[in-house]
Target: Methyl-accepting transducer domain-containing protein
Amino acid sequence: MSLFKKRTSKKLNEEVEEGKGVLDLGDASKFTRQMELIHLSETDLGLINKMQPIIQTHSEQLVNQFYDNIYKEQSLIEIIEDYSTVERLKGTLRVHIEEMFAGIINEEYVAKRLRIAHVHVKIGLQTKWYMSAFQGLLLSIIQLVEKMELTSRDCCLLIAAVTKIFSFEQQLVLEAYDTEIETLKAREEDKKQEIRGNVATETETLAAISEETNASFQELIAQAEEVVEHAEKGQDFSLKAKEYAENGKQFINEQGELMLTIVDSVAEIKQDVKSLLYVMDEMHEITTIVTDISSQTNLLSLNAAIEAARAGEHGRGFSVVAEEVRKLSDQTRSSVENVSQLIANTNGQIDKLSESLQEVSNTVQNGQSHMKATEEHFEYIVGTMKDTMQQNQKIMEEIDGIVNVVHLLGKGFEEVAFTAENLTSIAQDM
Model:
């Protein structure tokens, strides 16, 4: 008999009495109390079973209406595209609906619903979207019931039965959600405990490492500051060495100028010696002339003495004079010879003086050359010391930068140690 025809001889529930549904979960089943609360009975399952042919006839319509609603939510579309296809899920839903209206609830039915629920949880389907979609399916079936040719009472009985089976389905799914959520919470708590333990262990290790590293950095800072101090002392020594080198260069310059003065003086002395030699030569010529004159005078006085002797008594006075002249001539010759000897000795000394002056001149010139070379060395030393001071300045700046970085690192490790302590407290509060 079709459910779309008006019933006059029998009521719908009277027909169901002839073929009740199957409710086989055992008296001790944990679902018994739930079905009692929603008044789900084998009679209801019989009513639902009577509607299965209608559901099968309109299953495609019901499934299409269901997925029309699904497509209104983008997140649901993304879940479908990530884990399956619409066509495949439509086939699964068609079988699922037909099984709901088979009028049989047993352990296999419940297990299958629970598996579906676990899949929903696994793929991240939120309960609000499950409830909304399932409610839309329920409304579509109620609208289908309302179109059937039933009495008002039969219509209410069938809608109530459909609502009860949908309620039981939702209870199974939501319970699976709760179970899975509790399982996830337990796992999460286990992970938290494990993380808490790991964090505590690692933070203790981190704190210990931070303390050790901080101690090392403190030692490094002390050593860096000591290096800075040595660099500053080296800079001071370089500055003093530069001053000494500049003073030495100045002294060499002064000595060079003095050498030039000596060279000029020696040149003047050599010129004076030349002049003196010229004078001595002149004096030698004069002494030669005087010697010649003295010799001639002596000869003349001898001749005069001879003539005076010939003159006898008359020439005696003249003889005395001639003798005196001869003596004077001898004295003059002797003095001139002494002067000549002195001139000769003086010439010898002047020659030696000339040779000494030449040696002095040569020595001064050599000293001047050495002074010039020494001055060049001092200039090189001064330039080197300037470069050294610049390098020392750069080294000091680099070391200052390193010290600043080390200080920052030290502060960073202090912050790490402080963070590690905070992390330990957070881990304990988890």
In short: The radius of gyration is 70 Å. The chain has a mean pLDDT of 80. Residues 12-203 form a domain with the Globin-like fold (CATH 1.10.490.10). Strands lie at 22-24, 104-106.
